[in-house]
Amino acid sequence: MIDTADAASVETAAAEVKSRFPQTNVLITVAGIMMPENVLTADFLATAENTVHTNLLGPIRLIAAFSEFLAGQVDATIMTVSSGLAFVPLPFTPTYNATKAAIHSFTQSLRVQLAGTSVQVIELVPPAVRTALMGQEESATAMPLEDFLAEVMTILQTQPDNDEILVENVKFLRYAEARGTHNQVLEHLSGH
Ligand SMILES: NC(=O)c1ccc[n+]([C@@H]2O[C@H](COP(=O)([O-])OP(=O)(O)OC[C@H]3O[C@@H](n4cnc5c(N)ncnc54)[C@H](OP(=O)(O)O)[C@@H]3O)[C@@H](O)[C@H]2O)c1
Known about the structure:
Rossmann fold; alpha/beta; single chain; binds NADP nicotinamide-adenine-dinucleotide phosphate; 4-stranded parallel beta sheet
């Protein structure tokens, strides 16, 4: 078990992985939480802090613990997990969106810093997918998990050098700014 929001837990788990599985060559920083956030309520700050610890500091700590180790492997991959909401925010979850935007930015720098090493850096950018996140297992507006996984695996197999894994459903978010539709998409996500 690892609690990625806890620095000591990450250190302990990383040390165990390196000693028990020294050929490990893939790190996927997938753990994340997404909670409703209302800036006018008393519990907002605690939720926001938990979100930053898990979604931003967690991946950063994991990458700090593993990057030198992975760079020592013949061939390795670090996959970060951002979100389409990194590119247009869902106003209902401001800190969540902000952590994912930060992960996108961090991943770009990480890719440049590791360019001369054996480590490929890939950013998975999911759209809404039917998982336990925000209790959207049955959500009609979220993508079925099996469809998402199948599309991701096809992209990984057919375009293994892509920096970002973008299924079709996420492109309206990922490319909103470039397409000039950012404000319309933001209005839509605002429930207007
Ligand atoms: N589903 C979507 O619509 C969607 C869209 C965009 C991005 N994403 C991202 O995709 C990633 C995976 O989410 P998901 O959809 O699979 O959600 P999920 O079904 O809620 O799974 C989240 C996973 O993260 C783990 N986790 C949470 N906090 C942790 C911590 N402090 N330490 C260790 N593990 C922790 C959970 O473990 P426990 O079950 O043990 O708590 C669970 O396995 C997240 O980074 C999420 O932000 C998801």
